[in-house]
Amino acid sequence: MKKVLLIILTLALVLSFAFAQGATDDGVYSGVTDNAYRPGNSAYYDGLNYSIFRNPSDLANPRLRVQGLDIDTLSFNYAKALQNRSVAESLSNITKFDWDKKNWINYIMGLFTEVGSGYNSIVAGGFGTGAQIGNFGFGVNANVEVKSMPRIKEDGTLDTDKKSILGNGYLPVLDAAITFGYGMRIIDQDVYSLDVGASVHIAEKIYMLQINYDKVSDLINKTASFDSLPSRGGLGFPIDVSATLGFFGQRLNVSLMANNLNGYYSMKWYENFKKAASFDGGERAYTLYTPWSLSASVIFNPRLGAVNPTVGLELTGLNLYLQNDYNKARPFMELLKYVHLSATVDLFGIGSVKASYKYGYPELGIGAGFLGSRMELVYGYREAGKEYGDKPVDYMSFRVRLAYDK
Predict the structure, then answer these.
(1) What is the pTM of this model?
(2) How far is CA 49 from the centre of its chain?
(3) CB 215 within 8 Å of CB 224
(4) Mean pLDDT across the chain, nearest whole number?
């Protein structure tokens, strides 16, 4: 298996040099579609997703983890949308499993109404399955997110003058990946340990070209078809590598992570979303680059038993901060977009409460489960603007995970 993983990593690096020739950003879609993919739930307390998408050196701890099914949904601009009584009633009906078409349409349109102008997100959903057996990890993950951005004018530039939802363009973005990872302990002493790991993703990225608000309404009401909407899609082979120093029997872990190395996607234009997903035809090939990131974390898990607090500090994308935000007028404030400080308290191995200062904004969550299976509800904010404080957007996340973790 080690040789197989080494061959996959070598192949991915070779393909990266081929894809890099003529590499480009995504033009006016830059910042919307050219982001590295990882599941929305992949922080240090998220088990398998954390190991294969953020810190593969965590796989150096041999264990059996089976993630049978992991589903999460995110609704953005949540608080404002629920101020509309009709939207709130529709959500109430949905939570009671009254999944009538009218309830879903009313709820989703309520989120669209509150999206505001410019860059934002409306709704997202993710799926995952996989396992860790010994030091090897495997996963199949996918995520769809509907995003908004300024409308593209006929001359190909962005129209930033219209300050309403009617002046926006909208596009669904699909990211999916099949992932293989491996971790190993290269130093194991009483005082400290050193773990290393790597994971490679066979990743697919698809997005629909921008559509307007009226077309979105027609699609939701099924008076228009997705088959008529052009899309772009392609494959990439991003790589994650990491190293972790463990102290006090791995209760205190200090990690350095390089994520999304080789972030090149070989893309084509397709007639519609379905053909892009199946690579049916396609023309006008180009290469899309998604940036890599360098991150560092410190995590302390004392393993106290019945009531166990875990504290973590992660600085995500330090190279991106130096590249994009260090020279801005308020460099320290911009740094907050890269800081994730969190505390999670596990109660008797069943319940959990967490609080985070995540990328400049608070996040609160509660969860319940046993032996890896969990249900979680999380409410927080994230930055949708170009600079910190420009456009804080709230979200509600609901997650169900059927798993076994020992």
Answers:
(1) 0.87
(2) 10
(3) yes
(4) 86
